[in-house]
Design goal:
With 317 residues, the protein is of the alpha+beta class. The protein is 28% helix and 21% strand. It contains nine helices and 16 strands. Strand 8 and strand 9 (102-105) form a beta hairpin. Helix 4 packs across helix 5. The protein is elongated. InterPro entries: Dcc1 (IPR019128). This is Sister chromatid cohesion protein Dcc1. Belongs to the DCC1 family.
């Protein structure tokens, strides 16, 4: 039996894609359209004769049980959950200073309601499966009961920690490996484990997208994702980036066996070239990154004190 839910985006949301109510099954989304008709409409059901002598010779028939004045039509739609999730979920910031220490959020951002993953999904007007696809795409994760999504610096820093740990332990990222072995090498860096697992889920082969005991990274996903990510971090820096320097950094942050595969062909549509310089490009616009830590709740975490997550928890809602 399929469950049915009626959902809509919050009234305060500025997302343009549908703000009206939708009917969702687990894997499909339908627009609801009210239809008026000048004809009479009856809801009927089969009617059987009663076991009485008076009705013994009556034939089965139909019985009217309702006469609705208005009906609703269902129209299947394919709407992405990503823009809704980006509006509802606050950004988790990570920055690295010159000493090699990280600066991470320690309080909940103002202006955002703290919602769990399922509570967030309840406010996204798409089916459950599409919500889950969007959640994985933006690398969302739960932290102390609330949903968050990492900034591009948080993503890049977490990925580099994963690569460094895998290299030091001789882990082949494109083969199945125990998540716990990787986590033991990353834990002292202070990243939330849920964020590490979310990055692994984003880069996992389609048939292995789970957040369990084992993980692996799909080379064909990782290479273009990392290239676009590195390029996006340059936005807002007010400096030109030579394409050759970008390609070198891209290759330097791939497993050794994958270095030769890095090519601009992998990220077509994500950049523009002018002379020998390269710029990040998304949806027809040169995009400025959201790596700024001007919002409240950013504090330095030194190598001697990685208890930032406890500070975050103490802030409450």
């Amino acid at each position: 039996m399929k469950s049915l839910t009626i959902k809509s985006a919050p009234t305060t949301s500025s997302v343009s894609a549908p703000s009206h109510a939708v009917l969702c099954t687990t894997g499909e989304t339908f627009q609801l359209r009210q239809v008026h008709s000048s004809n009479s409409i009856f809801l009927i059901q089969p009617s059987q004769p009663n076991d009485t002598a008076e009705e013994a010779f009556r034939s089965p028939g139909l019985c009217t049980i309702a006469a609705p004045k208005v009906t609703l039509e269902l129209h299947r739609v394919a709407t992405s959950s990503v823009p809704h999730l980006r509006k509802l979920i606050p950004t988790f910031h990570v920055q690295e200073d010159g000493d090699g220490d990280f600066e991470m959020m320690t309080s909940w951002p103002t202006g955002f309601e703290k919602r769990s993953k399922q509570e967030t999904f309840a406010h996204v007007p798409t089916c459950e499966e599409e919500c889950e696809r969007g959640w994985i795409e933006i690398v969302a994760f739960e932290l102390n009961g609330g949903s968050m999504r990492p900034s591009i610096w948080a993503l890049l820093s977490t990925y580099k920690a994963i690569l460094s740990a895998a290299t030091s332990q001789g882990i082949q990222l494109d083969s199945r490996f125990p998540v716990e072995d990787l986590w033991q090498m990353i834990e002292d860096d202070g990243f939330p484990r849920a964020l590490v697992e979310a990055v692994l889920a984003r880069l996992a082969p389609e048939e292995h997208i789970t957040r369990g005991e084992w993980a692996s990274i799909d080379k064909s996903k990782c290479i273009p994702w990392l290239g676009a990510l590195i390029l996006e971090t340059e936005q807002g820096s007010n400096r030109e980036r030579f394409a050759s320097d970008f390609l070198k950094e891209w290759k330097d942050n791939l497993p050794e066996a994958w270095r030769a595969s890095a090519s601009l062909d992998f990220i077509k549509g994500s950049y523009t070239l002018k002379n020998s310089t390269i710029c990040f490009y998304r949806d027809g616009v040169n995009t400025t990154s959201t790596t700024s830590s001007t919002s409240t709740g950013i504090s330095k975490v030194t190598s001697g004190s990685r208890k930032w997550h406890e500070k975050f928890r103490n802030t409450g809602k």
